[in-house]
Design a protein that fits this description.
By secondary structure, the protein is of the alpha+beta class. It contains 4 helices and 6 strands, in the order αββαβββααβ. It has a single domain, classed as Beta Polymerase, domain 2, CATH 3.30.460. It has a 6-stranded mixed β-sheet with strand order 3-4-5-2-1-6. α1 packs across α2. The protein starts with a helix and ends with a strand.
Amino acid sequence: MSVVEIAQLAATAAEEKKAEEITILDIRGQSMIADYFVICHGNSQTQVQAIVESIKKKIQKGNIPVKGIEGLPEARWVLMDLGDVVVHVFHKDEREFYGLERIWGDALQVEVQ
């Protein structure tokens, strides 16, 4: 599975749990930490946790290792390390505050399929 397909798989899993404003950013050449960011948010702690669990299950079902998950207990900003794909699942308030799309404004947006 290609890196962009992994990003799309994560986005699809987030969509299944009604994540909002799902964005895939192509950050190749702009960052050494990843090739793609998947960014989305939920409106409650419970929804954020459900989104993360959905992504984790779908990724593992595709035999893709989840290298790490940070921030799940608080569920305000959860970071999922999928290797060359980093998934950011925010609580709505934190997403607005941190504004990753503004910070990575030069990155190309990939259409979520």
